[in-house]
Structure formats: structure tokens, C-alpha cells
Specification:
heterodimer; A: 284 residues; 0% strand; elongated; B: 344 residues; alpha/beta; six-stranded mixed β-sheet; 28% strand; globular
Chain lengths: 284, 344
Amino acid sequence: MVAGIHSAERVKRLVGFRLFWATMWARAYPRIVGAMRERSWMFFETLLPLLGVTSYVFVYRAIGAPEEYIGFVVVGGAMTAFWLNVLWSMGSQFYWDKDMGNLELYVLCPGPMMAILLGMAVGGLVFAGVRAATILLVTTLLFRVNYQVANLPLLGGVFFATMAALYGMGMLFASVFLASGREAWHISNLLQEPIYLASGFYFPVKALGFWIATFASIIPLTLGLDAMRQLLFTADPTLGFLSVPLETAILIGLSALFIPLAYVALSKLEEIGRREGRLIERRR
Amino acid sequence: MNTSYAIQTNNLGRIYKLRGPRHKNDPREIVALEGVYLEIERGELFGLLGPNGAGKTTLIKILCTLLLPTSGSALVDGLDIVKEAREIRQSISMVSGGETSGYGLLTVEENLWMFARFYGLDNQTARQRIGEMLEVVGLTDRMRTKISDLSTGLRQKMNFVRGFVSDPNVVFLDEPTLGLDVGAAREVRGFIRQWMAEHPDRTILLTTHYMAEADELCDRLAIIDRGRLLALDTPARLKRRLQREAIFHLKVGPLGPRPSKEAMIENVPGVRQVTIGEQNGHTELSLILEGEDALPGVLAHLTGRGSHLIALEKREPTLEDVFVDLVGRRLDVDTSQRSGEDEI
């Protein structure tokens, strides 16, 4: 029996994991439903990135690069979707939510902030998944990319480890928005294109040299992409940066680092936001 | 501190440090709230009445755990706002006037469902309570309307449902009728009264700069200005403070040139407070006099300044008069502006 609004009886509330789960899906809901209701995003999220990937393919073909490079571009192009999802649909979303007055309400509600962020990520996967799948499918067919999958379960494992680390980093990044405003928005802008370069989205990261590639490995997509390429294109394994088991282990380590760190950062930056009045300000 | 109160504050204060570019002599900080002591009983509908910039919203945001105080302490529902913020959030909610929260692509029902789930309501409870509350506020027929298509008034009603659907112990309403038309504001006030009647153990802290709203709704209210509480009592007792004074509203012809400081109307014997406003070519004066016998002196003063009497009305004291008596200017004057009204 549900306590009606005219009744003095108290409403029972979910707690613990059930509250986390309910919060996560509730926050994912607007993204999922929004994607169904306004479908214009499909054009921008699929056709435009396809043009970018295609141009790289033509460049590689024109200079006579090894055929694996075409596959590298295709996989890298598909994975950009997840990076953009983390940057714009997760971290920077707090910027918009603050502006609209939602952030205050998120902070006020008992549902954990980690669940709200995870909900944003899960909802954003609709966009990212469609974009990634479209790029992968269309360019694979268009340019006749030949995959030689060496170990499918490991490939799946690497993908999930990459996602866990990447979205953990996204939560960490989102915490910055709790205590800052427009400047964090600029950081998002600043991170987009340079990471395409540093993480080797369109070429093997090994080409950047050991130290730059090592430094870029803090972005989980660097190693995730490199490992997936090694597992998808076995023809020339020397193009890989580190061995797949080592890269997988590092990705798991990054997940274990970023997720708890995000939890601590969210608490800490919320406190700073409360102290400095940043949680209640509108766009400056 | 006593945990039996719904809200208790002890010397609560908040100073904002100013960021961004400023001139050499600009202040580095603003005192938004200073030395606030409040004790609000459970079951009370308590009002904070003050002009824009008085510190009402700052106080609400502190009590809602969105802002830390820079001095003093406070308990909400018996819990410390600094150390037990997460626990407090289980039992409170907040609705602000002019709120634009939610997602425009979602319907009214979907937005409310999302927030209800954030508060841990299970699916069935959330849907049932949302349905019931939408009926109470007369929004049932808009249940499946996207919120981007709602008018300001309808959206505010939806915000109200969001604030109450989670069954909170303490509700903070920050200027809840701001921007609403008369009808919508009346319905919102009706909803507040009904909810308090049905849930006598719950508490509402309401801020407003509409006197009639404060007068109509609040069991007790505090008058706040420039971050300080100036008076705290029931609306009736606050008005009774002015019962010995004579309150007049005068409509007069345009006043002549501004006189010297000594010759201002405030210096006419028996005048306690005066506010002035220009309207359609004439001047309107609100006067609080120590007694009716001070009136001839005022009229003589006006005649001396080249003005003439158009209309005169003697009134019962209102909360506006109480405010004017306490701070020397009208309630609708923004605190951040230095008014010329108090120098006429």
C-alpha cells in the first residue's frame, strides 16, 4: 500500500544499492528518451564523423601506408565517440545542469552523485554507441577493412576495461565542474583535439615515441585503443605500443584508481563548491 | 542547540568574497547574512519577509546545505548543516520561484518521476504520488505535455509537485510565487495551506517579498534586511506594533524643488517614517505619524513646497508599514540600491 499525498503515513524510500540503481536509471532516462524524441542528432553524430574518418583513409591510401592503418583509423574513429561522450555528455553536462538549476537539485537529493554521473554515461552510450557502430560498420564495408580477431573474449575484456577506466576518469573530470564554471568548459574544449593526437586516434600511438605515449596513457583510450588494434589486426603486432596483457593490466589499474578517486573528488569539490558558493551560481 | 526544533540557527552568517575584475576601492566581500538567530518549531509555516538582496535566499541555501556559513551554526531537522549535510538531504526539499529545472524534452510526469526516483521512491509510489499531486494542483491534463511547452505558471506548479512528492519533513520555498499571475499564485498558496493542514508535523520555511503572501500564509515571520533579522513575530503582533501610530496615504501634486536637509518632510514634528513615489504626474506619500495631530504640520509643509492635496486615506497598519517603520524604506526597493526616497 502506497502512502498517498493526503495521508500522514510516511513514504518508504529506497536506500543503498537500490537507491543507487534507481538514481542511475532515472538520470539515464532523459538521455535515452531524448535520443528517441529528437532524432536530428543521428545526422550530426554519424554522417559528419564519417567524413573525418574517410579523409584519413584517403590520406593513408594516397601515401601508400600499410593496409592495417586503414583499420586503425576506422577503430580510432569509432572510439572517438566514447571520448566525446565523456567530455561533453558527462563532465560538461554539469555546466549546463548548473545553468538550468538542476545541479542544485542533484546535490540536494539523497541519490548518490556517482549514480547520477553513471546515469549520464549510460544514457550517453545511446549516442556514443550509435556513432561508434555506424562508423565501424559503414567504413568497414566502404573500405573493406579486414579484421583478424585473435582473441574475442580478451577483446571484449579490453573494451570493458577501457570503458570502466574512461568513465571513471569522466566522473573525476565532472567533479571539477562542481567547484568551477566556465573555465572547466574551456578545459573540455582544450582536451578534445589534443587527445585525438596524444592518444593516437588515427595512427598507432607508438609513432609518438615511448615517453609521449607513456604520458598519454593516463587517458585510458590510449592503451585501450592500442590493445584493441593489436587484437583486431594481428598482421603486424610490432605496431603495438605495449603488450596486450600489460595494457589490459594498466587499464584495470586505471579503473581502480579513477573510480575511487572520482568519489573522493566529488565529495571534496562539493565541499569547496559549498564553501565558495559555486554550487548556487549561474553561468558567469 | 536544541534538536527538537525543525530549524535552529545560532549567530549564522555568510560573507561572499567577490571574484572577478574590480576597481581599487571596490569592496572585496559582501556581508550577505549576519548574526541570524532563529528557532522554528515543527509544524510551523515560517516566513522570511524582505526586499531583493536582503539575504533570504542565502539563508535558505545555507539551510538546504548548498552553501556553507562563514560563521555560526544551524540545525535542520535536528541535524548539523555542516557535518550532517547528507543526512539532512533525506528529509528536506526546496522549490524556488522562477525555477527552470528539469529537461524540456521530458513530459511533466517523466520529469517528476526522475526526481522522485532520485529521492528513493519506488516506481509504484512515485507514479501514484505524482498522479495525486498533479490532480491537487490541477495539472493532470498536462501530465504528458513536454515541460518546454509549459507556461511559467504551470511549470512552477510542476516544481511544487517536485518539492512535495518526496514527502519531506522540511520544505524550503524561496519566493515560490515569483513571476506567477494572480490566479496561479492563489492556487499555489492554497496548495501550501492544504499541505500544512494535512501534515501538521511538517515545516515550511518560505521567503517572499510579497507582504500579502506572508500575511496570509505564515504562522510567524521574520523581517530581514541587509542580512540582519530586524523583527520576528506573528503577522498580527508585528502589525500591532504600529497600532498607536497614525498611518496615512497621501496623493499630492508634484513637490517643488528638493529642500535643504533641515527642511525635509522627515523633520516635520511627529513624522516617524515617510516613503515617496511618483505616479502619473502626482506624488504618493506613505506616512507613519506619531499621532493624527501631526497631520496638519505635514500638510502645511507640502503647501509650503508648492504642492496641494489630492487625496488622503487613513489606513490600518500593514506588514509593509512595519517594514518601512523598521528600515525606513519600502519593501519593493532593492537593498543593493541606495534609494533617494529616504531623502525628500
